[in-house]
Amino acid sequence: MLLSAQNISKAFGSFLAVRGADLAVAEGEIIGLIGPNGAGKSTFFNCLAGDTLPTTGSVVFDDIDVTRASAEVHARAGIGRTFQVPATFEDMTVLENVMVGAFLRHHHRGAARETALRIVEMTGLTRQSAQRARSLGTPGRKRLEIARVLATGPRLMLLDEALAGLTPTELQQAIALVRRIHELGITLVIVEHIMEVIMTLAQRVLVFNQGHVIAQGKPRDVVANEAVIEAYLGRGHRRRRRETP
Amino acid sequence: MLLAQVIVGGLLLGAIYALFSSGLTLIWGMMNFINFAHGEFVMLGMYVALLVVVWLGGGPATFGFAAAFALFVLGVIVYASLIRHVMRGPMLAQILSTFGLALLLRYTAFWIFSANFVSLPQVSLSGTLNVGGILMPVPQLVAGVAAIALTLGLHLLLTRTTVGSQLLAVAEDRNAAMLMGIRPDRMQALAWGLAAGSAGIAGALMAVSYPWSPSVGETFGLTAFVVVTLGGFGSVPGAMYAGLIIGLIQALSAYWLGPIYKDIVVYALFAALLWLRPQGLMGKA
Amino acid sequence: MKWSLPALAALLLFYPFILTGPFYWDIGVAFLLAAISASAWNIVGGYAGQVSVGHSMFFGVGAYTPLLFYHLWGLPPVAGVPAGMLVSLVLAVAIGMPTFRLQGHYFSMATIAVAELIRIFVGTWDLVGAAIGLQGPAVGRAWWDLTFRSELPYYYIFLAVLAVVLYTTFEVERSRFGYYLRAIKAGERAARSLGVPVRATKLKALMLSAVFTSVAGSLYSIKTGFIDPESGFGILVSVQMVIVAALGGAGTLFGPLIGALLLVPLQTATNTWFGGGGSGLTYILYGGIIVLLARYEPGGMHEWWQRVAPRLMRRSHAA
Predict the structure, then answer these.
(1) Range list of β-strands (E), chain C
(2) Residues A184-231 pLDDT 10s
(3) A21, A126, B130, C283: which could join B107 in a potential S-S bond, CB 3.0 to 4.6 Å?
(4) How far is C132 from chain A (nearest CA, A)?
(5) ipTM above threshold 0.85
(6) How close is the nearest chain C Cα to the Cα of A144, in Å?
(7) How far apart are alpha carbons C39 and C144 in whole angstroms?
């Protein structure tokens, strides 16, 4: 197991955002994480990435216990993440943003710049590389975040709704990008609401509701699962099964 | 018995520290914003009291209310014209905004009132009470008790009234509050008014017993920082206890080490707090 | 702006021969000193975004140690400069270590409190002259006492130091350290997620800034031959550094220079116009400028020019 999170809980005062969530990711997998808004997915991600200290549970990455380690240590160990609301460095250019990521693996500007240029090209941001991040729209910012974290040379990437708000064309490009990232050997855990993304990319899906995992399995099986439908649509809703032709 | 007197005096002044610091911590907790001009609000309250006494010949109630009202208005104006715009911007702009405001208020006061120390002309409160051998000047006693009452009042306002819960809702979760129909902008303006107003009235209470000049704003501002750090981020009850403690420590330092050391000890305590227990008494770690 | 760098260097080098005489040389020296201090502040306050409003503590330490070395041991004041730098370094660590793991406000509050603490304390300590302060050699015993009658030698010494500070800032800007500083300012949380060692980076920035500020203080006291708690550790010293950097453009290489260029002549002018009450009005003006900057143009003149220049270019092309 590349990443093993066990019994993760996070309490904010008396409110339990995450309760006893588990996640096991083998190297090279693409895992999808779905669930209604407020189910605790982002908080769970924050615990995995070291952004938040879990109240209980453990996170083991590559046989190292990173449960209480800071986000910086997580990043250096090889866990990268993007943010649900893009947190790009607004006043720095696209290239500079990516270079910050690249500097994790290169101490010298020249090498960092080379890596950054390569990744900017790979993510299709070459045209905007000299523009300030604040001039990009949200899709551009999301792509920049992916490029930036890619430059850190991660082994595992946690993508938090990185493909939201895209036009159909952009979505296809983004899916292709995620595939390319996967082909580089990077393990992925993706939080998404867009079913197409989950169905086409994810090998395994976890469903979050009210802070813990309520279902797991192959994408097709999970979306037909009663508990999952109930989670999204509420109890007592008459089920309509969509027949696939 | 001199020591007991020093202790009482320190606590009475500390009560006033608690009053003006509670406003600062309210803003901090609510908007994650530190007002570097808070000490100047206190200083201005003192001058408002002076002007009311000199021009209108009013008594403590009059100039107290006037100081509270005038500073409430100033607080709202400062929020609406300045704070609202820099709040969401870069940290540099946020800190510079009230830091610049502090300079502006302080040096304008120097220009208008000169650097001379002034005090309030003899007010109706005078005399000294003798309680068990401890001599307590009536003005300081009344000021201290009033300060405690007002701080408690602020705390009750926040925790027991509808308006208070609306303020706290905005502090807790701005977006959720908006969804409930609360206007964060209005609540924040109100918070600034309350914070400035309580600073103003604290100033008026202090003016009763202590001489001052425009330079005191700087010291009060720093004292407020120490009090809110000791009390804990955003905690009005914390500020209350911390204010009393700081007043006490200050008085004892002056007594045992000398008057010059009263501020040194407080600032050194601040540095120690940052090292050892930055969350203060009631803040979260 | 690349062509203007040699022009700027030439201008600064030959200024004393373009505008001659003690009056202009005095302004020149004041300009250089303001530029050095503001550039030093800029490293931690502008680039890293950690707003210190108590930088006078480093300035004061740097200003006191040379005159202390002279006062206590009869050494040339210059000998005290490294000691000042060392003490400033220690001070930087003492303040940075606890506060850089907390939210930004704590650092700012701490800087102002510690500066005040030191100012008051120094005012009571007889060893360092208490409220009266310290004086340097009235008449130089040898050249290394650096007591020159004319402003000219000071001008060139200050210019050399400014060149060092600017060059260091330039190198920092291009380095990994510099990118990390800017990332921290732009978004600490995101920076952390990319492996930036936030606390250590902030601390390094503060230490570098402290050392340069200390040197600025040393230059000041060696030139003036006098220091007291107010002129060393007073809040107005801190204000000056912040406003010069912020007005020109905090976080840019030449921002502090631009700010000094605008403010030093302004200060000289207001002191002349307003006469005795001058300093009071000057600081009302400073306060007003800072508030306006914060409200309308936190990026300073540099940012303003970046916004306005393209429009001006377009107009001149259209015309």
Answers:
(1) 134-135, 226-227
(2) 999 999 998 888 888 889 999 998 888 888 888 888 888 777 667 776
(3) C283
(4) 47
(5) yes
(6) 12
(7) 26
- Note the pTM of the prediction, 2 decimals: 0.92
Q: How many CB pairs under 8 A join B and C?
A: 139
- Share above pLDDT 90 across residues of chain A, in percent, rounded to a whole number: 57
* Chains in contact with chain C (at least 3 beta-carbon pairs closer than 8 A): A, B
Q: What DSSP designation does C133 have?
A: -
Domain B2-118+137-276: which CATH number of 1.10.3470, 3.40.50, 1.10.287, 3.90.1310:
1.10.3470
Residue type, B136: M
Taking contacts as CB-CB distances below 8 angstroms, the residues of chain B near C104 are 91
Which residue among A87, A90, A109 sits closest to C175, beta carbon to beta carbon?
Answer: A109
Q: Exposed, middle or buried by CB within 10 Å (0-12, 13-18, 19+), for C74?
A: exposed
Contact between chains at A51 and C195 (C-beta distance less than 8 A) = no
Of B10, B7, B16, the residue nearest B224 (C-alpha): B16
- Could you say which DSSP state residue A32 is in? E
Tokens of A19: 């309760």
Return the residue of C nearest to B80 by Cα.
C295
CA distance B162 to chain C (A): 30
Distance from CA of C131 to the nearest CA of B (A): 12
Residue C250 to residue B128: CA distance in whole angstroms:
55
Residues of C in contact with B92 (CB under 8 A): 45-46, 49, 51, 246, 250, 294, 298
Q: In chain B, what are the domain boundaries? A: 2-118+137-276
DSSP state of A93: B
What are the residues whose beta carbons fall under 8 Å from the beta carbon of B205, sequence distance 6 or more?
A: B16, B19, B64, B143, B146, B147
Residues of chain A positioned with their CB less than 8 A from the CB of C186: 89-92
Residue environment code for B218-240, b if the CB has 16+ CB neighbours within 10 A, otherwise e: bbbbbbbbbbbbbbbbbbbbbbb
Say yes or no for a CB contact (<8 Å) between C195 and A112. Answer: no
